[in-house]
Structures are given as C-alpha cells and as structure tokens.
Amino acid sequence: MAIVYDWYENPNAEGEPEERGLHPRPLLNGKVSMEKLYYRIHERSSLTVGDVKSAIDTLTQLCGEELCEGREVHIEGLGYFAPTLEATQKVTRKTKNKHLKLRLKGISFRPDIRLKAALAGVTATQSKYTRHSLRLSEVEIDMRLKEYFAEHDLLLRIDFQELCGMARTTANNHLQRLQKEGKLMNVGRRAQPIYRPMPGYYGMSRDAAPKR
C-alpha cells in the first residue's frame, strides 16, 4: 500500500498563487495502538502477549531513566533518542541564574539505518480529495466561477471545492458569502444546495429572471 499525500503551500510563500512553492505532506492512514503491536509481536515470536507488554514497559522505563541522565539511547534497528532543551525566556551572557531559565523541550529521534531500509521502495500516491484550501482571493474565485458557468448551468458544493481547491468547510463559507452578496442563489434544498448565478454575475444577463 502506498503513502497517500497532498500538496501544501510552503509557509510564508510569496508571489502569485500559481507560482508559490508547494511541499508534499503525508496524510496519515490511521494509528496503530500498542495493544495491536503487542499481538503482532506475539504472532512473530515465542513470547506471550504479557511477556511482550512487560518487556516494552520495562524498555520504556529504562529509556526514560537514561534520558533523564542526559544520555542518548540507541535501540538497534529502531533509532536514537536524545533529550532536547529550550530557554523559557530570552537569555544572554549577562542573565543571572541561567539554570532557572530552561526546561525540557522534548525528545529528538533519529532513525536507525535498518528502519530506513525497511521503507526502501515505498511508493506514494496523491490524495483524490483536497483536505486543505488554496489561498484564492475573492476576485480569483469570481474568475473561476465565470469560467465554470460558461459551460455549466448548475454548481454543487463538491464542484466548487474541486474548482477552487478548497476543503469542505472553507468552500461552504465562501458559498454562504456569495449568496449573501447576491452572486449565487440556492435552487435546491437547504440540506442539498444547488447553485445558479444571479442575474448580472458570472455571465448571466442582468435582465434574466432568476430560475429556480
């Protein structure tokens, strides 16, 4: 099975929307619980589920003790763990009691070469559904809608999502805005909206009577 991903705009990206840099980001396919891992280890070894749980619990406790002593922990085949620190406020060489101005930030992890090798040959496929929204201005949205209605009479929410590259919530917010501005009208049901352009917008003649 491939890793599913989508493209996201780089932080602080500048320039025109078509020229802004993008980066791929994996869309996690669920989460594996420790309970499931206990049973999977049990199935591949001579250990009972209780033995597996006891061994992992002990390993976790020992890793915590070593990390508290400032040591790096190497679990062969998995990776390297090390504590990281951060300042709680701005610290300079003149700051007094510097040791009181820091705290544990977290635990860094560097994968072992064997873990990396386990991912060799992995494939990736782009998500069929947009889970985030492109940054389009209201003018850009109007331009895309004008092009859309040049070939279509009706617009569904999913059509608008695909047209503007938006997530569902963002698309609904813009559709509500366009209705309030008198640019679109819902000719369907409240729970199943179907949109048409109002007269004077998106190629619809100002003299045209609204169709329901």
From TrEMBL:
Q: Which part of the chain is the HU domain?
A: 1-123
GO MF terms listed in the record are:
DNA binding
Claim: DNA-binding is one of the keywords in the record:
yes
| A Pfam short name | HU-HIG
Q: Which UniProt keywords apply?
A: DNA-binding
Check the record and name the InterPro entries matching this protein.
Answer: HU-HIG, IHF-like_DNA-bd_dom_sf, WH-like_DNA-bd_sf
Give the source's domain of life in one word. Bacteria
This protein is called: DNA-binding protein
Source species: Bacteroides stercorirosoris
